[in-house]
Design a protein that fits this description.
The protein is built from twelve helices and eight strands. The protein is α/β, with parallel strands linked by helices and about 300 residues long. It has one domain: TIM Barrel (Alpha-Beta Barrel), CATH 3.20.20. An eight-stranded parallel sheet has the order 1-8-7-6-5-4-3-2. Helix 6 runs parallel beside helix 7.
């Protein structure tokens, strides 16, 4: 599968929940339709914004089934399979290897510290060897306590199943090195850090996987198009709007805030997996004001 398959905006899909902890199918549909209407190329289910590590295997499987049914091949479906050992990744991968899944996405183990490049290569290759789907590697040291260096990622791209990288570190110098190295391979390079999305596109990123894409997909797709046509000033203008909107993450736990914003826009309920908090009325009010300031229209 070519890197050209994974381009544009592929947001890390929020996981809509119901009060009984079941997956809210209607919420999944509203989110996916909203993302596609905003020009999204697909969705990444069970990433950080999707509460992947917090959900039971049954919840994860249900979400992937719903997403595949709703997408109906209108966009890419990437699915997170991150766990803390090869054994557990195998179990999750087998359970989520469902019709409609285009690729899996995998971080390093998130308990412990695996900074040695030889351990990283062995881990990713072990999963790639057994995967029935293409595999994108996910570099997010904030969550897994270790960086996968660009040179290691480029070396791993020689594996026929490893087709891309989602990089959420936010380190522009490392990201640029990764882009340069990817030009010698067929590795798709996607940026997940919203604060450097514009710079990354201008540096040659193939696409964006940003959580705020759940709320304002059209902003991100406009920035992608502006970068494609070398309109650096327009890229900068959209980037400034994204940074301003990103303040919503600061009122409490970032994911509780993001889901609350989505609920105020009528996309899903604000329910999150414990121990993430439900926001207070005052925090909700502050997010509502911020959305209004950014030209958005909360429904309640």
């Amino acid at each position: 599968m070519s890197k050209a398959t994974f381009t544009g905006l592929i947001p890390p899909l929020l996981t809509p929940l119901l009060p009984d902890d079941k997956i809210d199918r209607q919420g999944v549909q509203r989110l996916i339709e909203h993302i596609l209407a905003g020009g999204g190329s697909g969705v990444f289910a069970l990433g950080s914004s999707g509460e992947g590590p917090f959900l039971s295997l049954d919840q994860r499987r249900t979400l992937v089934q719903y997403a595949a049914e709703i997408l109906q091949r209108r966009g890419q479906l990437l699915v997170g399979i991150s766990e803390c050992s090869v054994r557990r990744v195998r179990e999750v991968m087998a359970a989520l290897d469902l019709p409609g899944v285009d690729a899996f996405v995998l971080t390093l183990p998130f308990y412990g510290q695996f900074s040695q490049s030889d351990i990283q290569r062995a881990f990713f290759k072990a999963i790639a060897d057994e995967s029935n789907r293409p595999l994108l590697l996910y570099n997010i040291p904030q969550a897994v306590h270790a960086v996968v260096e660009p040179e290691t990622l480029a070396e791993l791209s020689q594996h026929p199943r490893i087709v891309g990288v989602k990089d959420s570190y936010g380190d522009v110098e490392r990201f640029q090195r990764l882009v340069w190295l990817s030009r010698e391979t067929d590795l798709a390079v996607l940026q997940g850090a919203e604060s450097v999305a514009g710079l990354s596109l201008l540096a040659g990123a193939d696409g964006l996987v940003c959580g705020l894409g759940n709320l304002v997909p059209a902003w991100f797709t406009a920035m992608i198009e502006a970068a494609r046509t070398n309109q650096a000033e327009q890229v900068s203008e959209v980037q400034q709007r994204i940074v301003a909107l990103g303040r919503l993450h600061t009122f409490n736990h970032w994911l509780s805030c993001l889901k609350t914003a989505a609920s105020l826009l009528g996309l899903c309920q604000p329910l999150v997996s414990a121990p993430m908090p439900i926001l207070s009325a005052d925090e909700v009010a502050q997010i509502r004001v911020l959305l209004q300031q950014q030209g958005m229209n909360p429904i309640h």
